[in-house]
Structures are given as structure tokens and as C-alpha cells.
Amino acid sequence: MTKKELNESTAYLQSKGFDKPEIGIVLGTGLGKLADQIEDPIVAHYNHIPFFPLATVEFHSGKLIYGTIEGKKVVVMQGRFHLYEGYDFIDVTYPIRVMHQLGIEKLFISNAAGAINLDFKKGDLMLIEDHINLQGGSPLAFKSVGEYGERFADMAEPYDVDMRQKLVAIAKNENITLRQGVYASVVGPQLETKAEYRMLGILGADAVGMSTVPEVIVANHLNLPIVAVSVLTDECDPDNLKPVNVEEIIEVANKAEPKMVKLFKELIKKI
Length: 271
Known about the structure:
The protein has helices at residues 3-16, 89-102, 161-174, 194-203, 213-221, 246-270; strands spanning 23-27, 39-45, 63-69, 72-78, 106-115, 125-133, 178-185, 207-209, 226-235. By secondary structure, it is an alpha/beta fold. It has a single domain (3-270), classed as 3-Layer(aba) Sandwich (Rossmann fold). A 5-stranded mixed beta barrel has the order 5-8-7-6-9. The longest helix is centred in the C-terminal third of the chain and has 25 residues, at 246-270. Helix 1 crosses helix 2, helix 2 crosses helix 5 and helix 3 (161-174) packs across helix 6. The protein starts with a helix and ends with a helix.
């Protein structure tokens, strides 16, 4: 990644009409429907954007969509990148840096995750309060990082308190169950063993997934306020562990998705 590459990616999108979006949104596995809410959409496929990685996961569609939701200009990532696809941390977080250069002032992130906290149920939403990075690296660990921001980025409060409070109030008002907890990010793509689920519980994780944390680290590096919501698609009980069915995970995410769309739309209204 170079400044020249970032500038070329940004210039291409601006030439397509991506004009000063206020909010960036990253849509996770099975959570693409928010894109249907965008008015006057302009679409840029990842394979047309200079220096952009390509999404290789079949249920990640791979396009950046610009338009309006609830009167605010947004840019939505429909399809994200993961370490398990063979990308590095720079690739995975490149779109966050591009959205920031386009002008976003806030970042919303969604993902599908497994529930470690057994009080949480399949189909619940969880507001991420904090995270544990178990991916074995950092998107800030490169020589020229100082050109992009403070090398030693502070992570005392990586998820914006004000937006979190607003989401809690919205969920209460809309009668949506919104859990709150700690998200652990692992590399994947294999699912966890029983012993690993026990370890994650001991570490203090409420949910586990394979994304989000690198994007959050870079957003903090760029001083972008973030809010993140997990759709809990399976229950990771090590004492009653059954083989995971990926199709079922997608189905659970699809069923829970309208609740997440409602939360994000209402939050867009209020900020």
C-alpha cells in the first residue's frame, strides 16, 4: 500500500460519483440487505477499483455502493476481505483507508459470529463493547505506518461510546434484543475445537468471528468513530458441540438481518 495507490483508488471512485460520503458501512456474512435500502445507488465492483483486493468468498458479493440512507450519504462495502482468504492485514483494511479518504466521518461494521456466552442465543444481535485480537498480527505493523497516523494507536475505547449508547436506546425503543459483549477475532477458516471454545470463554470473549478487528484497529488509527454489531449465528457450547452447517449460519444471519438493518437505519437518522 502506498499513498499513490490510495489516491488512485479514491480518484476512481470520485470519478464514478462517490461524493463526500458521511458514513461507511461494512456488511458481514449474510448481511447484504442493507444495501437494498440505498437510494440512488452508484455501484463500483471491486475488480474495477484500482488496487482493491477481490472478495473470494461466495456469499460476499464484492462491490462498493454509494448513495443515500435516511438523508445521509453513505458508502457501503458489500463483501469484505478476510485473512483466511490468503490476504494480509494491509489488504483486509485497504477499503477502510479508501472510505476514509473519500470523507467518511463514522464507520458501522457488522459481522456474523458464534456465541461463546451461553446466555446469548442463536439469532441474537450483540453490540461489540471491546475485542480480543487473536489473529496474530496488526494492520499497523509496517515500516511507513507513521505517514498515515500515530504508530502507537490508542485502543482504550475502540468502539464509540456515544453511538453504542444510541444503539442501546434504539434497540429498547424498537423492542429488539441487543446483547453487549466482547468479540474475539481468530484467523479461521476452520471452526474452533471444544478446547478452543473453552479457552475463549476463559479469556472473557462473548462471541468469536474471523473479521472486524483489523478494520477497527485501522479506523482507530484514522480517528474514525466506530460502532459494530454481531449477528450470533450459532451457539458454541463445548459440552454439546455439533458440527457447524454453514448454510444454516447464513440462514440465521438472513433471519436476524432485518433487526440489524432497523438498528443501523435508526442510528443513521440520529447522528
